[in-house]
Amino acid sequence: MNLLKYLFIPHKNNNYRAKILHIDFMAIMLFILVVLNFTLIKLQNTNVIYAFKNQITVEQLLYYTNKARQENNLPPLKLNDQLSQAAQLKADDMFQKNYWSHYAPDGKSPWDFILKTGYQYEYAGENLARSFYFAKDVVSAWMNSESHRANILKKEYTEVGFAVKEGVLQGEPTTLVVQMFAKPILATNQQDYQPNQAIPQEQTTNQKVLSVENKPAINLKFITFETTLIYLIMLSVVLVIDYIAAVKTNLIRNTSHNMISFIFSLTILIGIIMAVKGKIL
Description:
Structural class: alpha/beta
Number of strands: 5
Order of helices and strands: HHHEHHEHHEEHEHH
Largest sheet: 5 strands, mixed
Radius of gyration: 28 Å
């Protein structure tokens, strides 16, 4: 309590000015905030953040996907190289064009990536996920979503392909997981199949494009902003308390000193906001 009083309440021991308003204290706090800001930005843009994102493998994704199907009395899916190639093409495209969607900014659909590999399908579907650390969590998230679950448990699908890719997407280090489902068209029907034309309506109704995103409990890019904002609010409250105390005790205050302190802190906050937006968002 004495420490809090010393920091925030004007009284004899702090020379009748809250310690938080003293120039030396403000200089130390602002220095800490600036160092914290640029340290987190540095961490956000280095491979340190990828340390826990190398646990997802295609083998594990296939295992947990088929485990879910088998638990629901469905046959396992067979890993198909062409579908995995299509998933990889989709992941590459998302990073290259910086989008998080099933459809690219240029209008390219998931089915375009499948057709590009030469795979001819009767049914096809796609699941997406990002920012997960483990394969089991990815599949669990899909299974906890009704629409994703329907995709995994669709009885018509017989084959699947996966891609796992790390990079920076929309300003954030990200691990993308792409899952492509399909049932190949029967060989006897391939003569009537024209992959360069629009996908027939009856196939379109069987396509599903779904995604999930893992939101980390701690979001690095807002830590410094929130800390600085709290400091600014705290400083404003202390300035009000200081003014009230000065009026009640008839203390002579140099109001310009308080105003300069507040403006200086506000300038630091604006600078940190600009840095966060410019280097992380």
